[in-house]
Structures are given as C-alpha cells and as structure tokens.
C-alpha cells in the first residue's frame, strides 16, 4: 500500500503526454536512409579498387613467373647445344657427356632423363652412363627428335603422358655432321616437378599455380589440392614448350579482408540498432501513457476492494511505524486514518496492561519470526472495549527485492473464540464420558480403515497403542463387515490368553462420511468360567465311567472266582482219581499240577483286582522282586516270540526284599512289556528289542522296560496319563493309569523317558523293606 500511495501521487503530478512529432520522425528516417546509401556507395568504390589492385598484382606475379621459367629452359637449351659437338669425340666424348648430363640433372631436379639418341631413334647412352641396348623411341617420346631432325635446330616437343601417369615434354638438340643429321640429345622434363622446383614459395603461398591445355585441363600443378573456386585467376601462354599450354594462377583469397566487411557490418548494425531504439522509444512512450491510464483505473479498483474488506489492513515500515491503514482497521479501533498513520509502538489501540505481550509480538514481527497461524492479540477500541484479533504479517518488498517494511492483516475473533471455548468444553465433557467407559470404543474410516477415534480402554485392550497417534490397528473381520451393517465376532490376539468380543456397526461421521463404530469387550473371564464348567463336567463324566468300571471289575472278579475255584477243585479231584500208571505217563501229573497252579494264580489276580477296586488293602508281603520279574518275563516271552521281538532281562545282581503284592507288580510288568511289543509292531521296527533292567539302591528297587521303537511324541507324553486317552484304535486308555495307581499304592514312582537311540523307557521304583515312604 505504501507503493500504491506513491504511485497515485505520481499519476496526479504527471501532465498528459502530447502526440509524437511526425515530421521529426520522418526527418530522422530520411537522414538514416541517406547515411546508409552513402555507406553503400563507399563500400562499392573501395571494393572495386581492391579487386583491380588484386588483379594487377596477380598479372605481374604470373608474368614474372613465366619469364623466369622461360629463361630457365633456354639456359638448359644452350647447355645442351654446347654438349652436342663433344659426342663426336669417341669414348672421351661419351665420358664428358655423362659428366655434363649428371651435373645438369643434379642442378635441375625437374629433368627426368638426359639421353644420347642416334639417327634412327635408338637410345645409345643416358645421363647415368648406362647403355639401354638400343632402346627404340617412338610416339610422344620421339616427337621432339623428329622435329629437330626436320628443322635442324633445337626443338621442344608436345606434352605427353608417361608410363607413371605424369605429363612430360622433351627438349631435342640435333647433332649435325657436315650438315647431316647424326642423332641428338634428348632432355625429358617432368612438368609437375618443373612447377614444384621452379615456382617460388612466396608465389605459391598466394596463388594456385598450374599448367593447363587448350581445353582447360590441368596437366600439372604446384600442389595437388583442388584449385579454389570463385576467386581471381589469370593465365598466359607457356612457351616454351608451347603447343597450346598455358600457365594459370588462381588467387587463394576469395574476397576482401576482414577490416572492410567487419567495419561495414558494424556500421550497419549500429544503424539498425538506432532504428530499433527509435522504434522502441516510440512504442514505450505509447505504452507508458496506456499504463498510466490503466494504473489509475487499477488504483481506483484496489481502493474500492480495500475499503470493502472486513479484515483490517495496515502497512508498517522497518521500524514498526504505521504508514497506511484501511477503513476496516479504522472501524475496529474507532480511530481515523490520520490518527493512526505515523504511530510507532506502543500504539494507542494497545491495552496498557497487555503492553509487554504486544511489544513482544511486534518485536517478533520486526525480527521476521512469523508463526504459520499468526498471533492472537488483545486490542482496545477507542471507547475502552477490548477485543481479540488474529494477526498475520508478511514482508513487504519492492520491485528490486529489497525489504522495505511489513504488511499485516487482522480480523476480530472475539465471538469465534467464545464459540470455540464452548465447543471445546462440550467436547471435553463428551470425551470424559467415553474415556471413562470400561468398554473399548473406536471409530475407523469406512473407505481406508484409518483410525479416527479410540478411547483409552480400547487402546489398553488392543496392543497398547497410543489412541492419539496415527497408528490404525488392523481390526479382524473388517473385510467381511463391508457386506453387512452389523457384525459381531470373538477373537484372541495372543493365542487364547485373552479373548475379546468385537461388535461393528456403520455410523455417519463428520460431514456425513461413512465410518465404522467398533465396541471391544474383554470376555476372557467369561470364557474361563465356561471352560471351568466344561472341565468339571468332563471330570464328572470320567469319574462316573471309572466308578462304573470299578463296579464292573468287582462283578467280573466275583463271577470269575467261582469258575476258577471249580477248575482248581476238578483238577485236584482228577489228580487223585487217576491211576498211578496213567499219572506217570506222558507228563499227565505235571499238566494237572500246572492247571491247578494257574487256576490258583488266576484266582489270586482276580482277588487282588477286586481288593484294589474296592480299596481294600492288597496282599502285601516281603518278597524277592526279581522272582516277580522272572515270572513276568516267562509269561511275556510267547507274546514276544509271536511278533518276532527279542526280550532280554538284565538282573541287578543284588538280592533285595520289597514289601509288595507280587501279582499286581507282575501285571504292571506284563502291561509295560505288551505295550512295548505292540508299539514296535505298529511302527514296523526291523529289529524289535525289549530290555528289562533291574537295579537295587540304598532305599529303592528300580526296574526299567525299554524298547527300540520310534519313541513317544511330545503330545503323547503330555496326555499319557490322561484318563481314557489312548493311541491304539481299540485301546481304552486306562492301562497306564492303573499301573501308575498300583505303583503309587506301593509308595513308589512311575515315569517315562526317551533313550539316546530313539526308543522309549518306562520305569518305576519300589521302596525296600524297612524304607516305606515317598522317594
């Protein structure tokens, strides 16, 4: 706003622009056109003079070169004419010829050959002193000699292409004896070598020198590169040798030097820049007039917008002095703009008791410490009424980016703050009620399942997460809940340690967004009570089955006792009535005694079971436990042999006495041996083995029944002594329980363990006589 006021003052003080002077613009354009025409004429004159100068220099250099080559060839002709009379001197003349020819070739490298030729065109001797055996010359190589013979004077021959592809020409000097032609001396010139050795470097550096024929074909040149195009060139007749040959020179420079073109281009650019500048100035003047007019309309519009705003605006300089306010700010404070502009902190609309707070906020603004949500500051109206404002500030920078002050906006938040406090109190009361519930409550977004709310009870029951955080637990059943409006389920997040009941229902959240309300109830105690009731019911059923089994065992023992007594009586009667001769034959008497003995033993077993079931004291007696093991081993041996198992017994070796019921202990051993044999048979063990080991200690006698089977799984071990638990399809699950009960009745211990080889070991201990008691 500070810049806006300055702009409005400048617009008021600026007079309206006059129309541009058209005659002045026309005069400037004509002057520039005349200047360009003069420069173009000057450039044309200078360029023509330069071209004439370059052409004169080229002609002079070429004439000098042609004259130099002419004199060089004429010198060779005179030298050869002096050599011709010496050829008549015989061998001495030939030596002088060879010496003169060698000297000539060394001094003139363009000479390819020097030969002495007879009258019939045969080469007699060359410059190196070697005879060619009468080589016959013909074609272009004999043309010069043929002309010399006819003209009786030295002659240059026409150019011809040699065997190596290069063009050459000959100089022939006839040898006349008394006016008759006797042969001649032939000098062969290499046309390219002539240019290479005889054209000076200072001419070759400026011009491309070559020899061309009548058709313009280059026969030889100083350098092999292609001659430049579109440049100055000149050619003159090359005589000798003549025959239509011309010496051509082509200038390497295609135009004038850099000075004149660069200077002319620079003058042209300056002229164009001047024209462009004048055109831009003209446009700028028009644009400025239009911009000032548009700025006037813009300032009027901005002033109207500023006055229509309900938020207060003020502009501050770098020291905090007010430089501009809008009408809304004046209405908030009750002060006029003339009263506000120019004030410095502390301002007149600051409450005196809040001066330290306001001074700190203003200092923060001046230091550039601007919070994102602004300041909440107390202001005071002219009549003393206080109000709260939300104060925002931003740096004010000019077009050059320099910090010139601050622009602040504010609005009255007194009523908004009252409503916010009332809403906050209501929200706190609502949260207090929800947070005080023992039932866990949470709300999740219907689309993304993002957590929206959770009370402390829910956070405590669900993984101890922070209810105010952004973490959203993955609640079970939420995917299936999308198909229904209400869902209820029970789950355990920690493997049956705690159980929760979770109920879902759809609700409308803020802005009518779809959400899910979840109620989480801890039902662990209820499930535990149900589990205890179920366990007690199972125990009651087990006890009932055991009672029924005891009654059945007692009945069986009572019913079997009489048949066994009858078997024993009948066997004794048969033994007494048989004749002595019959008793001695075929072991009849022993068989009858065995029947009596086994019947009596069966009766003892039945009576022992009956007494045990009825909780009557078994028939305890001091007995040798190894005898019970021996009888059990003898009774189990047929079973082991039937299934191909090896049954071994390893006695302890120390005789001891144990107070026990031998029949019951035998039943325990038989049961353990039978279980071991059947377990190995079901596991299809290749070499089944059951070993019985006994050992006597200081206070106890111990027996172990081990097998070479696969052993017992942990789950089987945990339920081994559970009533009615059996791994056999037809088992009742009471054998091992009865065995343990018999051992514990004898004040011993019963257990099971694994062997290192992978089998299983069942063991029990019995106290020695005189040491009854727990181990």
TrEMBL record:
Residues 297-369 form the PAS domain. InterPro entries: HATPase_C_sf, HATPase_dom, His_kinase_dom, HisK_dim/P_dom, HisK_dim/P_sf, PAC, PAS, PAS-assoc_C. Keywords: ATP-binding, Kinase, Membrane, Nucleotide-binding, Phosphoprotein, Transferase, Transmembrane, Transmembrane helix, Two-component regulatory system. Residues 373-425 form the PAC domain. SUPFAM superfamilies: ATPase domain of HSP90 chaperone/DNA topoisomerase II/histidine kinase (SSF55874), Homodimeric domain of signal transducing histidine kinase (SSF47384), PYP-like sensor domain (PAS domain) (SSF55785). One of its GO terms (molecular function) is kinase activity. It catalyses: ATP + protein L-histidine = ADP + protein N-phospho-L-histidine. Its EC number is 2.7.13.3. The chain crosses the membrane at residues 23-46, 256-279. Pfam families: HATPase_c (PF02518), HisKA (PF00512), PAS (PF00989), PAS_8 (PF13188). It is an enzyme of class 2 (transferase). Residues 555-770 form the Histidine kinase domain. NCBIfam families: sensory_box. This is histidine kinase. It comes from Vogesella alkaliphila.
């Amino acid at each position: 706003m500070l810049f806006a006021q300055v702009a409005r003052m400048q617009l008021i003080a600026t007079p309206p622009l006059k129309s541009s002077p058209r005659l002045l613009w026309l005069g400037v354009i004509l002057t520039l056109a005349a200047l360009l025409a003069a420069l173009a004429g000057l450039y044309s004159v200078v360029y023509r003079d330069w071209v004439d100068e370059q052409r004169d220099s080229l002609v002079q250099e070429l004439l000098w070169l042609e004259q130099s080559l002419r004199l060089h060839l004429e010198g060779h002709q005179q030298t050869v004419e002096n050599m011709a009379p010496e050829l008549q001197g015989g061998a001495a003349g030939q030596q002088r010829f060879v010496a003169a020819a060698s000297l000539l070739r060394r001094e003139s490298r363009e000479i390819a050959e020097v030969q002495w030729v007879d009258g019939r065109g045969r080469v007699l001797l060359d410059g190196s002193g070697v005879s060619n055996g009468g080589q016959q010359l013909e074609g272009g190589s004999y043309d010069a000699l043929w002309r010399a013979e006819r003209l009786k004077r030295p002659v240059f021959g026409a150019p011809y292409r040699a065997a190596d592809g290069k063009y050459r020409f000959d100089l022939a000097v006839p040898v006349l004896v008394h006016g008759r032609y006797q042969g001649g001396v032939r000098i062969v010139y290499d046309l390219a070598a002539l240019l290479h050795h005889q054209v000076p470097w200072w001419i070759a550096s400026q011009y491309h020198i070559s020899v061309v024929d009548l058709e313009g074909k280059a026969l030889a040149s100083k350098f092999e590169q292609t001659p430049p195009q579109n440049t100055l060139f000149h050619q003159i007749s090359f005589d000798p040798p003549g025959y239509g040959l011309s010496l051509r020179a082509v200038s390497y420079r295609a135009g004038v030097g850099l000075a004149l073109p660069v200077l002319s281009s620079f003058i042209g650019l300056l002229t164009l820049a001047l024209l462009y500048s004048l055109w831009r100035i003209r446009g700028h003047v028009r644009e400025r007039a239009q911009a000032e007019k548009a700025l006037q309309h813009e300032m009027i519009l901005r002033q109207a917008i500023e006055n229509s705003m309900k938020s207060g605006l003020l502009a501050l300089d770098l020291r905090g002095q007010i430089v501009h306010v809008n009408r809304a700010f004046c209405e908030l404070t009750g002060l006029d703009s003339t009263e506000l502009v120019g004030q410095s902190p502390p301002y007149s609309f600051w409450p005196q008791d809040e001066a330290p707070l306001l001074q700190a906020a203003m200092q923060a603004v001046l230091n550039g410490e601007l919070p994102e949500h602004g300041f909440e500051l107390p202001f005071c109206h002219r009549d003393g009424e206080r109000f709260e404002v939300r104060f925002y500030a931003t740096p004010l920078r000019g077009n050059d980016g320099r910090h010139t002050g601050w622009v602040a906006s504010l609005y009255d938040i007194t009523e908004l703050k009252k409503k916010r406090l009332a809403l906050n109190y209501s929200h706190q009361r609502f949260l207090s009620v929800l947070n005080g519930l023992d039932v866990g409550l949470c709300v999740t977004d219907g689309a993304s399942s993002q957590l929206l709310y959770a009370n402390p009870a829910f956070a405590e029951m669900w993984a101890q997460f922070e209810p105010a955080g952004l973490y959203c637990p993955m609640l079970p059943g939420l995917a299936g809940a999308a198909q229904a409006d209400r869902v209820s389920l029970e789950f355990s997040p920690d493997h049956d340690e705690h159980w929760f009941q979770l109920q879902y229902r759809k609700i409308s959240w803020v802005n009518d967004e779809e959400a899910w309300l979840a109620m989480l109830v801890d039902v662990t105690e209820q499930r535990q009570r149900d589990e205890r009731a179920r366990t007690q019911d199972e125990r009651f059923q087990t006890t009932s089955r055991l009672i029924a089994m005891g009654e059945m065992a007692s009945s069986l023992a009572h019913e079997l006792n009489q048949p066994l007594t009858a078997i024993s009586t009948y066997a004794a009667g048969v033994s007494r009535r048989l004749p002595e001769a019959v008793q001695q034959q075929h072991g009849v008497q022993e068989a009858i005694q065995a029947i009596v003995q086994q019947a009596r033993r069966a009766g003892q077993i039945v009576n022992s079971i009956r007494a045990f079931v009825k909780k009557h004291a078994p028939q305890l007696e001091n007995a040798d436990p190894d005898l019970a093991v021996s009888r059990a081993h003898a009774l189990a041996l047929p079973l082991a042999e039937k299934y191909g198992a090896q049954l071994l017994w390893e006695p302890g070796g120390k005789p001891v006495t144990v107070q026990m019921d031998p029949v019951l202990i035998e039943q325990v051993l038989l049961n353990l041996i039978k279980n071991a044999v059947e377990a190995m048979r079901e596991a299809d063990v290749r070499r089944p083995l059951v070993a019985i080991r006994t050992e006597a200690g200081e206070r106890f006698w111990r027996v172990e029944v081990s097998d070479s089977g696969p052993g017992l799984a942990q789950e089987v071990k945990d339920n081994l002594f559970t009533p009615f638990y059996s791994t056999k399809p037809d088992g009742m699950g009471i054998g091992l329980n009865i065995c343990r009960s018999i051992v514990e009745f004898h004040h011993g211990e019963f257990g099971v363990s694994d062997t290192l080889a992978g089998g299983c070991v069942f063991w029990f201990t019995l106290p020695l006589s005189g040491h009854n008691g727990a181990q």
